[in-house]
Amino acid sequence: MPVTKAPIQALPGLYPELLPMVLYATIAVALIGLLMAAARWLGARSTNRNKELPYESGVIPTGDARLAYPVPFYLIAIFFIVFDVEAAFVFTWAVAWDLLGLPGLLHITFFIVVLLLGLVWLWIKGGLDWGPSRQARDSRAGERGLG
C-alpha cells in the first residue's frame, strides 16, 4: 500500500491557491511604493513658470482648456448607461424565462415599471427637452422685437 503525503498547507486558515495572488499583490505594492519613493527622493525639485505650462506640441497654449460640456451630453451618457443596463438584465431574463417562471416575470415587470416611472418623471421634469425650450425661444424673440 503506497504512502500518501498530506498536502502542505501554505498559510493556516488560507487556501493554498491564494498564496501566489497574495505574494504577487505584495510584491506589486512594494515595488510601486519603492518606485514612488525613489522618484520623490531622486526627482528634481526646481520649478518655474514655463514648467507649469501645459505642453501643446510646441505651440504656446491660449485660452482656457476647461470647456463646459452642455448638460444634454451628460444626460445622453446617463440614459445610455441606464438603458444599457436595463437591456442587459432584460436579455438575461429572456434567456432563462422558462426556468424563472412567474416569479421571474413579476421581478422583471417590476424592474421595467420602475425604470419606466423614472423615465416619465424625467420627461415631466423636462430632462428630455434638450433643445432650446419654447419659453426661452419666445423670450429671445421678444428681446429682438420679433414676437
Automatic annotation (TrEMBL):
Keywords linked to the UniProt accession: Cell membrane, Membrane, NAD, Quinone, Translocase, Transmembrane, Transmembrane helix, Transport, Ubiquinone
Location of the protein in the cell: Cell membrane; Membrane
Signal peptide interval: none
InterPro entries with a match to the protein in the record: NAD(P)H_OxRDtase_bac/plastid, NADH_UbQ/plastoQ_OxRdtase_su3, NDAH_ubi_oxred_su3_sf
Gene Ontology MF term list: NADH dehydrogenase (quinone) (non-electrogenic) activity; NADH dehydrogenase (ubiquinone) activity; quinone binding
Regions annotated as coiled coil: none
Membrane topology: Multi-pass membrane protein
Chief location category: membrane
Chain segments annotated as transmembrane: 21-42, 73-96, 102-124
This enzyme's EC code(s): 7.1.1.-
Highest taxon listed in the record's lineage: Bacteria
CC per GO annotation: NADH dehydrogenase complex; plasma membrane
Reaction it catalyzes: a quinone + NADH + 5 H(+)(in) = a quinol + NAD(+) + 4 H(+)(out)
EC class of the enzyme, as a word: translocase
Job of this protein: NDH-1 shuttles electrons from NADH, via FMN and iron-sulfur (Fe-S) centers, to quinones in the respiratory chain. The immediate electron acceptor for the enzyme in this species is believed to be ubiquinone. Couples the redox reaction to proton translocation (for every two electrons transferred, four hydrogen ions are translocated across the cytoplasmic membrane), and thus conserves the redox energy in a proton gradient.
Family of this protein: Belongs to the complex I subunit 3 family.
Subunit structure: NDH-1 is composed of 14 different subunits. Subunits NuoA, H, J, K, L, M, N constitute the membrane sector of the complex.
Name this polypeptide is given: NADH-quinone oxidoreductase subunit A
